[in-house]
Amino acid sequence: MKKTGCGISFLILCLSFLQNSTAQTWKMVWHDEFDSTAINRQNWAFDTGTAGDGWGNNELEYYTDRPQNARVENGNLLITAKKERFNKRKYTSARLKTLGLHTFTYGKIEARIKLPGRQGLWPAFWMLGDSIDDIGFPKCGEIDIMEYVNNDPTNHGTMHWLADHELASYGGTILVNNVNDYHIYTVEWDSNSIKWFVDGTQYWEGLVKDNINQTDAFHKPFFILLNLAVGGEWPGNPTHKTHFPQTMYVDYVRVYQKEYDSTGTK
């Protein structure tokens, strides 16, 4: 998860609304409805530790796998940031991932999420290339489906990758009414492009067809992450007006892939 707007000057990606003559439908291939009594460990693993453990942007939290920070309740995954001293940090939270369990190449990836929206908070629903442990970031690629900072009602959708030995970033934003309500955050990703949506409205698209601008990372498997960061280079720190605990509610996460009918009929 990186701050948007750090692209390189040569990068030019055009919006494209390509028509495919072959009829297609979406088939659900994986999902978690969070309708059990506990987090499904066959779906989710945890990153634990601090920003110094190989990720982060000078964030302040310590990520744990404790139920105080991540649990299932009333049909939702709750990721809760708390103000408490824990392993020399002043805050705790959670970061869940499907790495080592479920990866996907292309598809419609979406989640229905309700957010806290407070100064110093940085919730995210995103994806990383599953080669990250072998080749590192940004070479592995990253797709940010949902990112907010502080109480700004702007959702950021961004792709990051390596081009000419530099971090390349391309993304757009959309204003969302009342992030404290549930909204559906989606990407539709195929061999041509990545498209971003909120509540079914498309607001951005980046081309990856034929590895344009060295986007070959986006034709390989990715895994899903959900987290609620506290502080960091982008949002800044919480203030005395940021009351804790603060919780991110995830109603579901669903992944679909395309089914084609070559006759042109569904």
Shape: globular
Distance between the termini: 38 Å
Low-confidence stretches: 1-21
Proportion of residues in extended strands: over 45%
SS class:
mainly beta
How many β-strands, per DSSP? 17
User: Which sequence of SSEs, written as H and E, runs from N to C?
Assistant: EEEEEEEEEHEEEEEEEE
- Average residue pLDDT: 91
User: How does the major sheet shape up?
Assistant: 10 strands, mixed
Radius of gyration: 18 Å
The number of distinct helices, counting runs of at least 4 residues, comes to 1
Q: Oligomerization state of this entry?
A: single chain
What does this structure look like?
Helices cover 2% and strands 48% of the residues. The strands form 2 sheets. Strands 1, 3, 4, 5, 6, 8, 13, 14, 15 and 17 form a 10-stranded mixed beta sheet that branches. It is an all-beta fold. The radius of gyration is 18 Å and the shape is globular.
In short:
With 266 residues, this protein is an all-beta fold.
